[in-house]
């Protein structure tokens, strides 16, 4: 537990602040709407569900402001570069961008559920109060005219006794945008599950772009002003705490209490999401500009097990070890972009990727390049983008773990180390890398081209970590993984178990590739 706290204190602090802000915003808004004089008459109809709906709406605005930031990949790559002088703990937080993106999405789902349930109760109470004919305060408030020319202003959005909740939902801006946002959110969340992303990436890719409808809907959701409060002038003319008991005399000219006037609250969601949306649009424009630059395919290699290697050149392209790019082939699908780790070294005069057949898109791409008498398909490239593997040379000892095609990130690292040793790079901190063998019938490694091959097999991790800790008792060890989540859990536990509480002794830092 002690090692876990030492290695994750910043993440815990960051999450605690985020959760604390959610709780603070919810409680603060709830108390505001439960006590504000402006909503005194509204509470007479709706009760506490008014405060629940408004508090969850504020939290939705807050989290919708954050949801786009973790997927601004160019921004994260820029921050990773500017934070190269920062502590390792601060830099590692950038590797959790997708985890934070998912947590924010879950929080949006939670507050969406609260918001919808609260409004279901609200509309039920609106409907019942509009049906009331007992002359009570609630019935009087609900019968206030929607016709502004007749004086006064309405409080209940259900104008007539025979008007249904469904009619109001699908004919009002707030109701219609709410339905659209909810459908978009459900589709995005369900298609983002691990199974869908791995097996049907195209479904995940297309449905996730429904966020456009979610953001647009959120921006205009409050325009209708369905939830209304008493105007400031009306409160000054007759305070609700004093005048509510004289509601039967509101139309009497001799009564000092006048019929209250109501107005909708100005929309506020757009204020929360404006800056992140502008930032995201700038990000997309930059990425579109980069993707339109010409890519020249210099070499195509078909490896065993349906693995395609593409070596390419692009003007102004600059990379670091472990980075990845997004690849698009317009002849297959003009909209789909898939991430691939760069397998070339920065020291080489080209950049390369290895593509394994793992779905319709990759199979179609490999098939297109296998056609001997057809022209080479045009490829578009966006990137490169940074990953945890960029920090590999910041460690004295590095342990590289790849499962299946997950060995590709480390091809770049191993080749770069070879080039650095050949060039006698004195800035290289790394003194020791773990190793093993791949394709025993080949003279060199299929990915790196080096005589030292990578090996298959599942090591005894406790033995491996114990040996490393004994051999390097005072070193900082970076453990890098590109592989499944089950393997990540095992390695993360070993890193915690074998790290010393004494910062002067061996420390293991776990790093996982996330796309």
From TrEMBL:
GO terms of biological process kind: defense response; superoxide anion generation
GO cellular component: NADPH oxidase complex
InterPro entries in UniProt: Cyt_b245_heavy_chain, FAD-bd_8, FAD-bd_FR_type, Fe3_Rdtase_TM_dom, Fe_red_NAD-bd_6, FNR_nucleotide-bd, RBOH/FRE, Riboflavin_synthase-like_b-brl
Catalytic activity: NADPH + 2 O2 = 2 superoxide + NADP(+) + H(+)
Superkingdom of this protein's organism: Eukaryota
Major place of residence: membrane
Molecular function terms, GO-annotated: superoxide-generating NAD(P)H oxidase activity
FAD-binding FR-type domain span: 284-391
Alphabetical UniProt keywords: Membrane, Oxidoreductase, Transmembrane, Transmembrane helix
Alphabetized Gene3D superfamilies for the sequence: Nucleotide-binding domain of ferredoxin-NADP reductase (FNR) module (3.40.50.80), Translation factors (2.40.30.10)
Keyword Nucleotide-binding belongs to the record: no
Membrane topology: Multi-pass membrane protein
Cellular location(s): Membrane
Chain segments annotated as transmembrane: 12-33, 45-69, 103-121, 167-189, 209-227
Protein's UniProt name: NADPH oxidase 1
Source organism of this protein record: Macaca fascicularis
Top-level taxonomy: Eukaryota, Metazoa, Chordata, Craniata, Vertebrata
